[in-house]
Write a structure and sequence with these properties.
Largest sheet: none
Radius of gyration: 23 Å
Strand content: under 5%
Number of domains: 1
Number of strands: 0
Distance between the termini: 54 Å
Mean pLDDT: 85
Order of helices and strands: HHH
Length: 72
């Protein structure tokens, strides 16, 4: 069963029971992505890592030589 079919079935059941229909699929995707990003930043800070720029810093160290790595 696809997401759309499940949504239509849930909407039909809600209308039969006099309840509010569920939100449409994909209507909260941005909020979920934003909360996931915030959670990952929070976990990084709790672990003692920088919250932002981790990927860019790692690539910079790899490309330009970091501690224990010779410069090319």
């Amino acid at each position: 069963m696809s997401i759309t079919q499940q949504y239509l079935l849930d909407s039909y059941r809600a209308s039969q029971h006099g309840e509010a229909s569920p939100p449409a699929p994909g209507s909260h995707d941005r909020e979920v992505a934003r909360e996931l990003r915030d959670y990952r930043r929070f976990r990084a800070v709790v672990a003692g890592h920088p919250a932002r720029g981790r990927l860019r810093g790692a690539l910079g160290r790899w490309l330009h030589g970091g501690p224990g790595r010779p410069v090319r």
